[in-house]
């Protein structure tokens, strides 16, 4: 399938009338849908906790975990009645012991109360008028920032010559995705590096002429006002990762399952959270991913032949706003007591706006790669949605769910399908990773420095003072040239992608990479000093950006 680049093409909407968008149809029946989510969640939970004792025990566990959440991790977006609600649940659970004859009924009532609350908390609230306004504000505001950056003058804010298309490159299987969105339901699964990812993907979806997707946004984003506005306007459903209890997780998965069954294109980040290390995700969270498989089975059983397609998407940044705090969190988790961290999270609207201005004024591009679409079993599909198996022969996905000619519910089987799909998505992430000059020089810089201190473990190495970490420019340039050529070979083999910047001369590539690598940060991962050699102002950040090319065995070719 031929790859395409897009920076000037304008795609017409595949569904021009917004009342026909699946997400609009869902929003018109919002309350009925919430009730359906609650009802189906209860059935699912009771299949898992199929005795009175086990159900009551699970309710007790849920209440206790929620009590700890309220005490130890409260957020400003939490409901005002959180404490009172769970206090009342405690009273109802205590009352069960005095109602030996009605314990089951009381437990069922408590379960319904909790699932109703969770379903309402999770549910999105898409409104076309708010969506259109938010989209216009984003496009208008970003375009003005682009013009100001391009002209270097304040007056550029009032011109409309440059657009986000000049800043954000979309490449990959674009027409293929559009055709599949007409014939089935899309589940888009992007890599996740920054809190900006949701807004970026929302813009890409609109730019490709696709109707809005539903997607799960971390509830923590709603603590940031600028994100809260866009998330609410776009109808995002809320994912509270503090809540690990069975009742919440089943309700969340059921929301996704039923929305996909109803034909809503869906987006979620299968890594579950932003990559702390800076590397492409290797281990995916399978909970929401499995809901697509459950939705496909349900559709087939209901004589609905509409297929669900998985589309991997890779986001490529020169720098990540939250990189300092993300790598600190990763190192703290990896090294435990051997590494200590300070909180450096960017979590206010002011800092987000400051970052956006920095992004535009520094002329740093972003690229988004749309991978080749697959069915839920990891097979590629053609433009009509036919699954292509071994020897390029068409195969039926219905057969995956059937035994002796009948559809069969099999949790263990579906879990294996989800594991296989996770593996295939990770493979596609790596194939569609676009190497930017900043990625290449960070990888080479870190590997060369690391080889100078082979006897130190990672944590002792990262503690070295920066003034001891210098690289001769000639050696650095030769290693960049060598690895660049190896990456071109890997691209020819279909294992990775390269950006236009990698096709420049090595000196120009290095110059562009240094210009863009981590430009927002107070301490830069790599710089060229006064005598022309390469040094780092932050070894931790250099490690973070180096990690983007982990997984290809490139380290074997450096030094």
Compact summary:
The protein is of the alpha/beta class and 559 residues long. It has helices at 22-28, 30-48, 52-72, 82-96, 103-122, 128-151, 174-183, 197-207, 225-233, 246-261, 287-301, 323-335, 349-361, 411-431, 437-451, 458-462, 473-492, 506-516, 539-546; strands spanning 4-6, 168-172, 184-190, 214-218, 237-239, 266-267, 307-317, 366-370, 380-381, 387-388, 394-395, 402-403, 406-407, 434-435, 470-471, 497-498, 527-528, 534-535.
Shape: globular
Helical content stands at 40-55%
Strand line-up of the largest beta sheet: 1-2-8-7-3-6-4-5
CATH hierarchy: architecture of the largest domain: 3-Layer(aba) Sandwich
CATH class of the largest domain: Alpha Beta
Uncertain segments: 149-161, 340-345
Distance between the amino and carboxyl termini: 37 Å
Report the biggest beta sheet as strand number plus sense, adding barrel if it closes: 8 strands, mixed
Question: What class do helices, strands and sheet pairing give?
Answer: alpha/beta
- Average of per-residue pLDDT values: 89
Number of strands: 18
